[in-house]
Fold:
Amino acid sequence: QVQLVESGGGLVQPGGSLRLSCAASGSISTIYVMGWYRQAPGTQRELVANIPSGGGTNYADSVKGRFTISRDKTKNTVYLQMNSLKPEDTAVYYCNAVVISTATMSPGDYWGQGTRVTVSS
Structure:
């Protein structure tokens, strides 16, 4: 089993900052990619940013220049630094990882439980 545990959500005023963290644990052989998705009420879940193990980063156009994703491979942890937050960033943020577990030795898609981010004055 692979578990993803998120932290760092909360309430922040427009223009403020938050940092999300997500730690992967369990029967991990290889992590291919880690990233963040978000889902606002009445909308589909969308990619915010991800970071493949081979390097590089990908961002949604709506967060480019404001959000920064990073990863600590030694801790199997991914971070999302969110600056200049806007009310439209309000959503539940989900950590995602594509992982080869030692149990299956095949790629699996894993999700965290979600952490709520509310941007409001």
About this structure: The first strand starts at residue 2 and ends at 7. The mean pLDDT is 96.
